[in-house]
Amino acid sequence: MADLKKLFYPSSIAVVGASRNPKxxxxxxxxxxIEYGYKSRIYPVNPAAxxxxxxKAYPSVSSIPEPVDVVVxxxxxxxxxxxxxxxxxxxxxxxxxxxxxxxxxxxxxxxKKVVETARKYGMRVLGPNIFGYVYxxxxxxxxxxxxxxxxxxVAFITQSGALGIALMGTTIMEGIGVSxxxxxxxxxxxxxxxxxxxxxxxxxxxxVLIYLEGITNGRRFVEAASRVTIKKxxxxxxxxxxxxxxxAAASHTGSLAGNIAFYETAFKQSGILFxxxxxxAFDWVKALTWNPLPNSDRIVVITNGGGAGVQASDTLAxxxxxxxxxxxxxxEEIRKFVPPFASLANPIDLTGMAPTDWYYKxxxxxxxxxxxxxxxxxxxxxxxxxxxxxxxxxxxxVKDSGGLKxxxxxxxxGGVEAYEGIKKLTQAKIPAYPTPExxxxxxxxxxxxxxxxxxxxxxxxxxxxx
Length: 466
Ligand code: ACO
What we know:
The chain is α/β, with parallel strands linked by helices. It contains 16 helices and 19 strands. The structure holds acetyl coenzyme *A.
């Protein structure tokens, strides 16, 4: 098991190739590192410069007055071996190699040489062919991606650089807080399993999201993932699901995408939630990171529109979750304020004439009913109400109930006003979506995780006991 402590809690970081040119990658990484607030020592390394971004520059890692923990390397690939040799000799513990031009373009030998050199000195390698890494508890943003990453509980491991860097922006837009973002690129040395092992016991991480093209050591991955899913969920976006996708993955990071049936089995065995798209993955991550887990499968759907309720019911049923009759007490509570023609089966239809306070009362009652395990709230924008007011009513019901003690997802369906409401709920860490299907699918992911966790716990205890 790799000891990654000094990668995430380094005493010092050097940036090799810290260019004076503000448009170059090495410069941008140094800038992010400084401006995101890494508090310990930062050393720019550039033989052509005396100073970069106000910090004294050194001609090589070995000329820095202390052994550094992390060396971020942003010089062209042919120069990387000599930088690694020098950093290794100087006692650096981790090399984070940004440079492209290795296995992904056929330079297998060059990549091998870099790893062999690093390992000779006991140094571990992240990359090459990556955009860097983030660890918010240490205020490290050693990437050339967006700077103001929101701290939170999601650890994101990505094999794709460009997609990963773009998704860094998505986390900010969606208000999703991250503990870590790891670009793993060619995985010449450290791979997904190493990071899973770290996140398993990382108190700052409550969910792991992985964008995966291929796995090198399937058995180790499954073992590590199984241990993690007992403690926290893992959502994986597996690209290269089709033959065309697999061909694209091979030329991207040099990975073998493999047979999708193999992955599906491996994911099931280790309790991983398999997302088919980026959108689905982020929907589930929001629901999982902001919600507690349910006790059982007694889901209640509250809506003001029959059609939205039907769509949510179908999506839940597609995921093996059949809606049961709502608890009697809840029905009696809601019957007090809705018209006689309201359907109080499940979905509970507040009717199209529902004002915001009906949403407040219904959500409050469901949150406080011990026979309700989770809630899907749906709202179709009508002229009677404004989606932002409905969002406020839902937020107040949560607040007056002492916070989310059971999982809830919300769909506000409509135009731009509905998006305003979604934004408001998201800021309050209540997962909200623009369609009933997405709210229901996100809820289904939570329930599926609970089932997977039971299964993996049993499987591991059986294996341990045999
Ligand atoms: N040690 C330290 N600094 C050095 C050394 C050395 N041995 N040799 C040169 N330098 C300096 C240079 O003088 C330069 O500084 P200056 O601009 O102040 O003169 C700086 O290091 C950078 O060197 P350049 O030769 O200018 O390299 P450049 O910055 O153009 O490119 C890079 C380096 C970014 C690593 C490039 O080779 C590369 O691989 N780019 C692709 C990166 C990438 O896409 N990564 C993958 C995935 S992320 C994604 O897909 C979005």
